[in-house]
Design goal:
By secondary structure, the protein is mainly β. The chain contains one helix and nine strands; from the N terminus they run E-E-E-E-E-E-E-E-E-H. The strands form two sheets. It has a five-stranded antiparallel sheet with strand order 5-6-7-8-9. A four-stranded antiparallel sheet has the order 1-2-3-4, with no helix packed on it. Strand 5 (49-57) and strand 6 (60-67) form a beta hairpin.
C-alpha cells in the first residue's frame, strides 16, 4: 500500500502508518489531512483501524476501513465535497456523522468490536 495518497488535485492527503497488530500481521492506519486548511481531519494512527482501500469520485473521496481484531466487517467512510472542494457531508456506512464527532464514533465502534 502506498504510504501517501493524494485526492482532489492535492487538496486532501491520506498518510498511511503501518502498525504491527500481531506477529507479521499489519494494519495500515490512515491519517487524513486537508492541505488547504493545514489540519488533520482524522487521525487513526493510535487505533486498530486499517485502511483497506481509498478512492475518489468527482464529488467525494472514500475510505474502506476494517477494525482489528475483527478485521472482517468493512466500514465505508465517505467525504462529500461541494463545488469548491470543501467537505459538506461525512457519512459512515451511509449514515451521516459530523466531522467533529467522527473520531469519537470510530473509537466507539473500535471499543465495541474489542468486546465481541
Amino acid at each position: 500500500m502506498q504510504v501517501e495518497q493524494i485526492f482532489h488535485r492535492g487538496r486532501y492527503r491520506i498518510d498511511i502508518h503501518p502498525i504491527e497488530m500481531r506477529m507479521s500481521q499489519w494494519a495500515y492506519a490512515p491519517r487524513i489531512f486537508d492541505t488547504h486548511q493545514d489540519i488533520f481531519l482524522l487521525d487513526l494512527t493510535q487505533s486498530r483501524w486499517h485502511l483497506v482501500a481509498a478512492s475518489e469520485t468527482a464529488q467525494a473521496f472514500h475510505c474502506q476501513l476494517t477494525c482489528f481484531p475483527d478485521g472482517h466487517r468493512q466500514y465505508h467512510l465517505m467525504f462529500e465535497l461541494d463545488e469548491g472542494g470543501n467537505i459538506y457531508r461525512v457519512s459512515l456506512n451511509q449514515l451521516s456523522v459530523s466531522l467533529s464527532e467522527l473520531s469519537e464514533t470510530l473509537s466507539a465502534i473500535q471499543d465495541a468490536t474489542a468486546l465481541e
